[in-house]
Amino acid sequence: MAAHAVDSILFGLRPGETVLIEYSAVSSPELLLYLVCRRCRARGTPLLIDDISDAFAESVIRLDLMGLELEGLRNVPVIKIGGSRDIGSVFGRVEVDKYFLDFRYYNEIYKKIVPEEVVFNPVLGIHKLFIALDRHEVIQLIRNISTFVGKKSRVALYFLNLDIMERYSPELLSFFEETASTVLRWDFEGGKYRLRVVKAANSSIMGSTVSLGFRDISRP
């Protein structure tokens, strides 16, 4: 199955959505990020990546080890949230210990760089904050994220390590899932990567599943 098979799900997401992409620790979520970026470039859809605690840098390094072509990823606009490893075109920085609760400073950066068209906005490493912060702070973080639901300038894609969340914050995972407008699952089984829609604002993609091999994802 060709990589563009994900288009029905990806471009079935609506402006203003907050989307959770739940993945297992061994499912190589960086491949889905690679696919999202490739399909957005193919469609001329703007991208903006939120890189929390160097999660984007870690993803790019793993993709490089897989032998994938990374020209597009090295130039994508990035907002750094914590961390120190710069990959992509970094347009702004937010210090986690200072701004993680109210997002006001993030909003200032976002408004300066967001294009007039709807932007796809992968958010990488959010689970790192869930581990680092105490329960009250995590609840406040999710509430802050919920204020972005309905912001029609973007489609936010929160990549979330499901194994970590189920171990450390299972009840807060449910809170986050309820807040999100759409929930996707990315896993690896039987030699295939699979993207499933388990909750959707757009009823036409509800229950959809796409299965891909590595060659499908890596093929130009």
Give the overall pLDDT as a whole number.
89
Q: Kindly give the count of domains.
A: 1
Would you state the CATH class? Alpha Beta
Largest sheet, spatial ordering of strands: 4-3-2-5-6-1-7-8-9
Class derived from helix and strand content: alpha/beta
CATH fourth-tier homologous superfamily = Protein of unknown function DUF257
**Sheet with the most strands, sense and barrel status:** 9 strands, mixed
Q: Terminal Cα separation, in Å?
A: 13 Å
CATH-derived topology = Rossmann fold
Rg over C-alpha atoms, rounded to the nearest angstrom? 16 Å
In total, the number of strands is: 9
The best one-word shape is globular
Q: What's the number of helices?
A: 11
- Strand residue content: 25-35%
Q: Low-confidence parts, pLDDT < 50 over ≥5 residues?
A: none
Give helix and strand order, one letter per element, not per position.
HEHEHHEEHHEHHEHHEEEH
CATH architecture: 3-Layer(aba) Sandwich
Helix content: 40-55%
Walk me through the structure.
With about 220 residues, the protein is of the alpha/beta class. The chain has a single domain, classed as Protein of unknown function DUF257 (Rossmann fold). About 40% of the residues lie in helices and about 25% in strands. The protein has helices at about 5-10, 30-45, 55-65, 70-75, 95-100, 105-115, 125-130, 135-145, 160-170, 170-180, 215-220; strands at about 20-25, 50, 75-80, 90-95, 120-125, 155-160, 180-190, 190-200, 210. A nine-stranded mixed beta sheet has the order 4-3-2-5-6-1-7-8-9, with helices on both faces. α2 (about 30-45) crosses α3 (about 55-65) and α9 (about 160-170) packs across α10 (about 170-180). The chain is globular, with a radius of gyration of 16 Å. The mean pLDDT is about 90.
